[in-house]
Structures are given as C-alpha cells and as structure tokens.
Amino acid sequence: GFLLPSTVFTPKPKVDAVVLRLTPLVKPLINVKYHTLEKVVKCLFQFRRKYIRKGASLLFPDQPELVPKLFQHSGVDDTLRAQQLTLEDFESLCNTYETLKELNQFENLEKQ
Predict the structure, then answer these.
(1) Rg for the chain (alpha carbons), in Å?
(2) Tell me: the pLDDT tens digits for 23-48?
(3) Could you give the CA distance from residue 96 to residue 64 in angstroms, rounded to a whole number?
(4) How far is CA 76 from CA 35, 64, 69, 94, in A?
(5) Would you say residue 112 has pLDDT above 60?
(6) Where residue 111 falls among pLDDT bands split at 50, 70, 90?
(7) Is the Cα torsion angle 9, 15, 21, 23 positive or negative in sign?
(8) Residue 5, preceding bond cis, omega within 30 degrees?
(9) 6: DSSP letter
(10) How far is it, in rounded angstroms, from Cα 4 to Cα 57?
(11) Where are the alpha helices (DSSP H) in the chain?
C-alpha cells in the first residue's frame, strides 16, 4: 500500500489515508458459500455488544425455534459475542444454518 497525505483531499481530513491492494486467496480459509457467510456474519454482527443468539434470531425471523438448534448442532456457545468467534465457529454456524434451511424447506413441502 501507499500513504495518501491529508493534503490531497478537499476538504482536508484530520487523518492521512492508505491505499491497500487486496488479493483474494485462491482457496478460502473456510469452505462455505459466500452468500451464506455474508448473511451469517451480517446478522451476528448486527448487535455488536449482545450475545450472538440475538443476531442469530435474524436468520430465522419466522421460526425462532430454530435459533437454539443452530447453536446446539453447530457446537458454538450462544453466549459469545460475534468478535469472539473463530473462523471455525463461523464455518460451523454457516454449515448448520444451510442444513437447517434445507431441512425446514423439506418439512414445509411435506406439510403442503
């Protein structure tokens, strides 16, 4: 990266800026669908100072009974905060979320 001094901006900010070039990894650090990862991360970080169970409720807005199952089957402690989660925790939550979604869709089809 390279530094951009505050003098190159109008109006002049109180800080300098840095331009970074990011190169995606050939193989992601966790093996989940990008859309799923994006949704799970967004929901869990929605309430930064709250336990992740609150954010997870956004994943199942019409089926709150699935939230405890998400944590039970993923093995992730629902009293953690999002910033405390490891990559492995996110991978487990994403995989469990996908499985619960698929099972729930199948159950809804059977009821029809």
Answers:
(1) 19
(2) 989 999 999 999 999 999 999 999 98
(3) 15
(4) 20, 17, 11, 11
(5) no
(6) low
(7) negative
(8) no
(9) G
(10) 42
(11) 34-44, 52-56, 66-74, 87-111
**Hey, how many other C-beta atoms are within 10 angstroms of the C-beta on 91?**
19
Lowest mean pLDDT among 1-5, 71-75, 78-82, 99-103: 1-5
Max alpha carbon distance in the chain (Å)? 65
Q: Is the distance from CB of 67 to CB of 44 less than 8 angstroms?
A: no
Position 8, amino acid:
V
Q: Is the peptide bond before 13 cis (omega within 30 degrees of 0)?
A: no
Could you identify the residue written with the tokens 């807005």? Answer: 61
- Show the tokens assigned to 82: 């999002």
Q: Which two tokens stand for residue 22?
A: 């990011």
Q: Shortest CA distance to 87 belongs to which of 32, 25, 24, 23?
A: 32
Residue recorded with tokens 């099972």: 103
Residue 44 near residue 56 (C-beta atoms within 8 A): yes
